[in-house]
Specification:
about 50% helix; binds NADP nicotinamide-adenine-dinucleotide phosphate; about 10% strand; 2 domains; Rossmann fold; alpha/beta
Length: about 300
C-alpha cells in the first residue's frame, strides 16, 4: 500500500493500516519532510515528494490530499510507469466521486472514493476507525477492495452512488463543522468568564449537549426536540429574538433558520398545530427579514 498526502487523513489511515497488521510501502507527499516524518512513524521504506518513487509492487494507493488537489495528483500519478491495471486507487474526499481519478482509470486502475465519516487529525488514534461509516463509491471491484479495507480498520462500509456524494458530505459537514460553528455561537451568547482562570462558559452547556445527544441516539429528532418552539411558546421565542436583535443582530437569521427547522420537526411530531406553526413561521420570517434589511446579516465575518 502507498499513501499519497501525509496530512491528517493520510497519517490516520497509515497508522490504522499498520495497527491492523499491514505494511505501508511508501509515503509520497508534496514536501519531502512530511513524507519522511510519516514514513518514519509507520516504518515505510519509501518516502518521497516524487510521484515516480511509487514502488511497482504497490497494489493499493490511497490519495489523501485536499479535495481540489486530487485531479492534479491523479494526472501526475497516471504519468508514472506502474502496473495500473493491477492496482486499486482511492481518494478520501467525502464530496468528490471516483470520477476525480479518471486519469488513473484510463490507465486501467480500479478507482474508488473511500471516505471515513469521522474527523481526523494527525494524532487521531487508529481506534477512531472503529464502528464508523466508510462511504464507498466507484468501480465494483475497487469498492469490494474498499469494503475489505474499511473492515480491516474496524469500520462499517456503506455504498453510495456518485450522485449521492455531495449531499451525503454536506450532511457530514453540518454534523461536525456545523455543530462546531453552532457551539461557537452558543459561546458568544453566554456571559464572559469573570476570572481569568474560570473554565470557559461553553462548559456550562456540556451536560445539555450530551443529554440531547443521548435522547437523539435513543429516539429521533421528533422524539428529542424540547423547548419553546416545540411547546408553541411564542412569547419566549419573541423574547429570544428581541435579545438577539439588540445585542447580536447578526445571529438573528441563524436563530430564525434553525427555529424554522424546529417548527418542521415539531409539526412532524404532532406537537404543533398548523396554526401554531404558521404564527411562529411568520414571526421568524419577519425578524430575519428586518435584520437582513438593516444590514445585520450573518455574512460579515467581523462580528
Ligand atoms: N481530516 C479529516 O477529518 C478528513 C476526514 C475525512 C476525509 N478527509 C479527506 O482527506 C483528504 C485530505 O484531507 P486532510 O484533512 O488530511 O488534509 P491535510 O491535513 O491538509 O493534508 C493534506 C496533505 O496533502 C498533501 N498534498 C497536497 N498537495 C499534494 C500533492 N500535489 N501531492 C502530494 N501530496 C499533496 C499535503 O502535503 P505536505 O504536508 O507534504 O505539504 C498535506 O500533508 C481530503 O480529501 C479530505 O476531504 C479528511
Amino acid at each position: 500500500m502507498a499513501i499519497v498526502g501525509a496530512g491528517a487523513m493520510g497519517t490516520a489511515l497509515a497508522r490504522g493500516v499498520v495497527a491492523n497488521g499491514h505494511r505501508v510501502e511508501a509515503v509520497l507527499s508534496r514536501t519531502p519532510a512530511s513524507a519522511q516524518a510519516l514514513a518514519k512513524r509507520v516504518d515505510a521504506p519509501v518516502a518521497s515528494a516524487e510521484k515516480r518513487a511509487l514502488p511497482n509492487s504497490v497494489r493499493r494507493v490511497l490519495i489523501c490530499v485536499p479535495d481540489d488537489a486530487i485531479v492534479g495528483v491523479a494526472e501526475a500519478l497516471a504519468k508514472v510507469d506502474h502496473s495500473w491495471p493491477d492496482t486499486f486507487v482511492a481518494h478520501t474526499s467525502g464530496e468528490k466521486s471516483a470520477a476525480a481519478l479518471a486519469p488513473l482509470r484510463e490507465q486501467g486502475a480500479a478507482t474508488l472514493s473511500f471516505h471515513p465519516l469521522q474527523t481526523f487529525t494527525a494524532e487521531t488514534p487508529p481506534a477512531a476507525f472503529e464502528d464508523i461509516i466508510v462511504g464507498l463509491q466507484g468501480d465494483d471491484l475497487a469498492v469490494e477492495a474498499g469494503e475489505a479495507l474499511a473492515r480491516l480498520l474496524g469500520g462499517r462500509p456503506v455504498r453510495l452512488t456518485a450522485e449521492q456524494k455531495a449531499r451525503y458530505h454536506a450532511a457530514a459537514a453540518l454534523a461536525s463543522n456545523g455543530l462546531v460553528a453552532l457551539l461557537a455561537v452558543v459561546e458568544e451568547l453566554l456571559p464572559e468568564a469573570k476570572e481569568e482562570d474560570d473554565p470557559p462558559a461553553i462548559n456550562w452547556v456540556a451536560p445539555l449537549v450530551e443529554r440531547t445527544w443521548t435522547h437523539l441516539k435513543r429516539s429521533s429528532p421528533e422524539g428529542a426536540l424540547t423547548g419553546p418552539v416545540a411547546r408553541g411558546d411564542q412569547g419566549t421565542v419573541e423574547g429570544h429574538l428581541d435579545a438577539l436583535a439588540d445585542e447580536t443582530p447578526h445571529l438573528v437569521p441563524l436563530y430564525a433558520a434553525l427555529s424554522t427547522e424546529m417548527v418542521r420537526v415539531a409539526v412532524r411530531s404532532g406537537r404543533l398545530s398548523g396554526n401554531q406553526a404558521e404564527t411562529l413561521l411568520d414571526l421568524l420570517r419577519a425578524s430575519a427579514d428586518a435584520t437582513t434589511d438593516e444590514g445585520h446579516g450573518a455574512s460579515d465575518p467581523s462580528h
